[in-house]
Design goal:
Structural class: alpha/beta
Radius of gyration: 16 Å
Order of helices and strands: EHHEHEHHEHHEHHH
Shape: globular
Low-confidence stretches: none
Strand order of the largest sheet: 2-1-3-4-5
Strand content: 5-15%
Number of helices: 10
Helix content: 40-55%
């Protein structure tokens, strides 16, 4: 079973884009590596996780490369996590974020076109999240918009009848157990422990909704 994780730096997690997809370097050090480790250990040779996250990407970037990084690879499962950069990039000197209306429009196009090309693919939508951290706490009100983008992803999951993985509440709960920086480096990028939570929740949803 071929699984593609599609997203931004949270998914990318420092992966080596030149490495063979079966080498650990190609998975980075985030949740895709942990997915392959657990799924592969439990069922040798059954699962192949391919990391197609790229740091800094927004929904429009995913749409631009979906043919190369998803359709051409013909996955059985596509996992999508995107949204925080669509908000974050509006804080740059030359704002380049994606407004909420456009975000939904392009996300919908991504889903429609992918299902048209790969009618049998199983798609999982992951909720974009924002935690407390050295980056997000400097612009709390701005980053709070990520929750509106999360609502769009939840709505699309319901409309398309796709498995939805909520993460905001999980990160909020983790911050009651240890300091925010224990779970994310800056309020956006998970530490190994934060990535472990994502992987745990992902696998639970995967087993319940897809790999039954």
């Amino acid at each position: 079973m071929k699984i593609i994780t599609f997203g931004d730096s949270i998914t990318d997690a420092g992966r080596n884009r030149e490495a063979n997809v079966r080498r650990k370097e190609a998975l980075g050090f985030g949740y895709p590596l942990l997915l392959q480790a657990e799924l592969g250990f439990e069922n040798p040779e059954k699962y192949l996780v391919i990391n197609r996250g790229i740091g800094g990407h927004r929904i429009v970037d995913l749409y631009a490369r979906v043919k190369k990084d998803v359709w051409n690879l013909q996955p059985d499962v596509l996992s999508i996590l995107i949204g925080v950069n669509d908000v974050w990039h509006d804080l740059s000197e030359q704002p380049n974020g994606v407004d909420l209306v456009r975000f939904e429009k392009v996300y919908r196009m991504l889903l429609d076109d992918t299902l048209a090309v790969l009618p049998n693919v199983k798609i999982m939508l992951i909720e974009p999240f924002v935690a407390h951290g050295v980056t997000t706490d400097l612009n709390v009100e701005h980053f709070a918009q990520v929750k509106d983008y999360a609502k769009v992803v939840r709505k699309l999951a319901a409309e398309y009848d796709l498995p939805f993985l909520p993460l905001q509440e999980k990160f909020d709960e983790l911050e009651q157990k240890a300091a925010p920086e224990y779970w994310t480096a800056d309020g956006v990028h998970p530490t190994v422990m934060g990535a472990k939570m994502i992987a745990n929740e992902w696998i639970k949803l995967f087993k319940a909704e897809i790999d039954k």
